[in-house]
Amino acid sequence: MLKNKIKLAGIFSILLLSASVLPSQLSAQDTAFETRAVPQSREQVQLSYAPVVRNASPAVVNIYTKKIVRSRRSALYDHPIFRRFFDGNNSFGAPRERVQGSLGSGVIVRANGVIVTNNHVIEGADEITVVLADRREYDAKIVLADPRTDLAILQIETGDEALATLSLSNSDNVLVGDLVLAIGNPFGVGQTVTSGIVSATARTQEGISDFGFFIQTDAAVNPGNSGGALVGIDGELLGINTAIYSRTGASNGIGFAVPANMVKSVLRAALDEGQLVRPWLGIQGQTVNSELASSLGLDRPGGVLIDDIFPGSPAARAGLSIGDVILAAEGVEIIDEGGLNFRIATKQQGESVKLGVLKGGFLEEAEIALELPPEVPERNVSELDGRHPFQGVKIGNMSPRFNDELQLDPFLRGVVVLEVNPRTPAGRYQLMAAGDILVSMNGIDINRVEDLNEAIDAGEGRYVYRFRRRGQLAECLVSSRGNRRCRAIQ
């Protein structure tokens, strides 16, 4: 619900927001700031990180992966005349296999062998080997992999032995200038520790992942450090080292780590919930740039302007409206969409989030109970069957929940193509492709899977259908033999 109206008189003031509406988070950061201190003597400057490293390093592991890569064979290999020649000369045309290896790092977060790493470290791997700090090796299985956060959860079996772990910090309390250690396996040389400071706490526009919200550090991070630990001086895990900014592939002093609070949400989904479904507000928005800020009467860019609200969503029930601007979440200033998405993604179903919202020139507080995106209608995943060119095409009903799994716009509705068997006419003649959103066929609007089946039955050997592909609307005419003519529609 909305409450605590404060007239802004057209001036963007996040300080007013923190002092009068949402004080809790910023006051906590102020308290955290007061506990920091710079060295006061030569003796303090000569203090060592060794106790922190001694406690933290046993929980950081090396990860080696193997993937079998099959080279493409010559098209002539399938020709009956040339096949015999290729079979007798394997250096020519026949497909080959080779083993491709890669390396990375990981962090043990549960004593029973649960490990967090980056998704890109283990993506596509056929074998995953985890090497502990004491050089023992274990095979690992994937519990959950989430490309959207570039995080993955692994499990190794060590019997009844309790492994060393790192506890996860509240990464919202980290401040620019805090000392940090990066522990990992750069270039495969073995476990290595580097030190630095936190350079920034909310980098959101790096294009590394969908929920990009990173701690930036100047601690040396190199290839092989991915999935390793970014540790605070208190010995807790602040984040998972994920990427570097570099023109050469080596460290230039700009590294990015996924914050521990995001790690907690993925870990919770893997161990407690079994699947990763993030709560949602039910809005579409855009980052307020300088031009928008001027038109809204704000003195600087920042925040998220609401463009659309899903009917019946948490945002709709809380009274948010198109044209409102979200300026803060949980007392933390929202700079752009990435920052807002991060704050919502780290919450659980049923939890509430407090937003600072600019509404009609007033700053208001909205406390919104978060829910999972609805699956209405049910996805009804089906494979088309019958004597027609679309036989074997797999389709499903779109909904906010299903769209989120498919990494599509949650607001899109209709029927989406999930898979096209390349051995079917639809695959051979490229009548459809995975990701196409069907709009109509033979004059019948396609809103549900049932509509498409009805429209195909009405085709009688001639099929005119419209679909959207990457936002472009197109229309195709297909005969029962698979002949196709298509055109783009403006």
Helix percentage range: 10-25%
Count of DSSP H/I helices: 13
Distance between the termini: 42 Å
Shape: globular
This entry's quaternary arrangement is single chain
Beta fraction of the residues?
Answer: 25-35%
Label the structural class: alpha+beta
Largest sheet composition: 8 strands, antiparallel
| Mean pLDDT over the residues | 86
**From the alpha-carbon coordinates, what is the Rg to the nearest angstrom?**
27 Å
State the total count of DSSP E strands. Answer: 28
The parts where pLDDT drops under 50 for at least 5 residues are 14-21
Describe the structure.
- β17 and β18 form a beta hairpin.
- The protein starts with a strand and ends with a strand.
- The chain has 490 residues and is α+β, with helices and mostly antiparallel strands.
- It contains 13 helices and 28 strands.
Per-chain topology:
Elements: E1 2-7, H1 14-20, H2 24-34, H3 42-45, H4 50-56, E2 60-70, H5 80-88, E3 97-110, E4 114-117, H6 119-122, E5 127-131, E6 137-139, E7 141-146, E8 151-155, E9 179-184, E10 192-203, E11 214-217, E12 229-232, E13 237-244, E14 255-259, H7 260-273, E15 283-287, H8 290-296, E16 304-309, H9 314-317, E17 325-329, E18 332-333, H10 337-345, E19 352-359, E20 362-369, E21 382-383, E22 394-397, H11 400-406, E23 415-419, H12 425-428, E24 437-441, E25 444-445, H13 449-457, E26 462-469, E27 472-479, E28 484-489
Antiparallel strand pairs: 1-20, 2-3, 2-5, 3-4, 4-8, 5-6, 7-8, 9-10, 9-12, 10-11, 11-14, 12-13, 13-14, 15-16, 16-17, 17-18, 17-19, 19-20, 21-22, 22-23, 23-24, 24-25, 24-26, 26-27, 27-28
